[in-house]
Amino acid sequence: MTQSDSVNQSDPHPFTPRGELNPAPHDRYNLVILGGGPAGMACATGAASLGARVALVERDALGGNSLASGSVPSKALIRASRTAAEVRRAAEFGIRLPGPPEVDFPAVMERLRAVQQQISAKDDIETLLDKGVDVFMGEGSFLDPSHISVSGKTLNFSRAVIATGASPTPSGVPGLEQIPTLTYDTLFQLSGLPRRLAVIGAGPLGCELAQSFARFGSSVVVYERQPQILAGEDSDAALIVQQALERDHVTFRLGCSELRAETVASGGSIHSQSGDHWFADPCDLVLVAAGRMPNTAGLQLDAAGVRTDKDGVIVNNFLRTTNSHVFAAGDCCSQYKFTHSAVALARIVIANALFFGTDKVTSLLIPWCTFTDPECAHVGVQEQDVAGLHLNTMSVPVSDCDRFAIDGDSAGLFKIHYDIRGVIRGATIVSARASELIGELVLVMNHNVRLAALASDILPYPTESEVLKRAGDLYHRSFVTPSMAKFLRKLLELRR
Known about the structure:
The chain has 496 residues and is an alpha/beta fold.
């Protein structure tokens, strides 16, 4: 895989602690953690604060993908691109500007890295040391079921946690090695804006970054083997997001049965087949955003009796591996590859590994959000499972919420799946602030608040959260049958 000339590789891991010597190990640790990403950091700080003797092993950089190449830099990039888009829309709101915005991409990336540094300061090596965690920098691997080796030192543990995260999945596109190519691991080292960008994969990351680069001024084409973007999401929601990205001049090649790359005189070219149509799109840079695979290589898991499969470390409902003294958390073992889910799994590990807890993964209600504009968020039961679970679906028209008109947002979606008792089992939201609204629904679902109760809430006007109250109102109206409506009319006639 080659790198673009516009990639700065001077410091691939800017958050790696420098000059810290690994301490002399204690005789035995309550918990040894492999991996210093969100799951590993949460395990380390949580267990240490409860009095456990903890060691954390990290080979590259504290903070993991979330800080270096995941949520933090991608959302900083999205924020900058949204500003550019808002400036272009200024005339819609009666604001006159002298001309279109000029994107200073190096300045965008400079701010991005400043945000990373600011956030990294909250979870740096000094923070861990202050909490009493022993930090070991280096490649960690199991020697046997109760010992881990790192940088020539041996760590003896009562319990261990594998929290090594995940890495980009190879695209498998023939000829791609001949074209400058990036993954999310290397994307945020860019120093120059690509003129023509090809994105392999229309999942959350691919869509977020495609829209961002299009708003910066790149010509962007996205390739996806599935027939819709955001595969697995509600199809209506995915369509709204796709149309929004197309308005930002993102081109999609969906349902690609064939994909291949080749070099041409002007740079690179991606050839794709969708149905009976072949396309050849020129590109200067390719972003592979087609998924992630768990990091388990080099850990010597066989020596510890820990089994894996294609999805990563095998765990049970309590996050215990096939070695009863070894647990796993985060992207290396979970289908939910999000920072917030990694932290939630870490809490389960602390309870179950150290305190005889019986917390279960299946008890968690994990939401997720794609941070496009508009955002697309989901929690609970998905659209394809509604019929099999005999659930009802309610769609609340976003036109009923005045905030959408005020903000100039023409498209949105609010779907709720609920059972016969009015208990909410799942929801999908598409709106400018879906990531905030979905948090309110998580509270509602976790505390068994039924749809009927939402109608009695008084919410600020005008806000997007009013759609929750509208949902409660619609639920009440669903019980007003034609015969009941006729009865009520007669009753009111008598009371005139």
